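Lab manual, section 2.4: Encoding a predicted structure.

Procedure: take the sequence of the chain (160 residues), apply the prediction step described in section 2.3, and record the output as structure tokens. A sample record is shown.
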Amino acid sequence: MTDETIIQERTDFKRGSFDYEFLLMRAADKCRIAGSVEFRGGYWMERPTLVNNNVVQERVYVPDTRKVFIESVTTMSLLLEPKKDEEFIKAMNELDKEVVSAKKAREKNSNKEEATAEFYTEMVRIKREEFRQIMLLIARMGLTGLRTVQEIVDPEADYE
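Recorded output:
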């Protein structure tokens, strides 16, 4: 047995287990959905709810869509941990420097609300680039049907 991470390559839907490619595609779809909404902060709201024939106000938290996107991309990156190549690692190192810079800028800003909004705006931009790098990595891995992603990002390249 080698030191490499063993990844099951087959899908057994009857038993509820999925192959690696399927998990990646599900994670990519989650990122796509999370990244295609209007980004806004989370907030609490009250909504009427029927409890024992009485209408009561229920407090519900509506999640911060920026954080949902950021965490979706982070999770997808973790799924790719055993497959990361030199090109991906180099790109992630550059993005890590931008994250550090965004954190320092937030710490310097005395207006907490403004600093948080600017920080999450910058983090969404960084995570969009990370997602792009993830999709390029998946295309380099040669997973079924994903060559078109790379062709869209870099139409000048020769993929034959």
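Check your result against the sample. Helices lie at 20-34, 65-79, 86-108, 112-141, 147-153.
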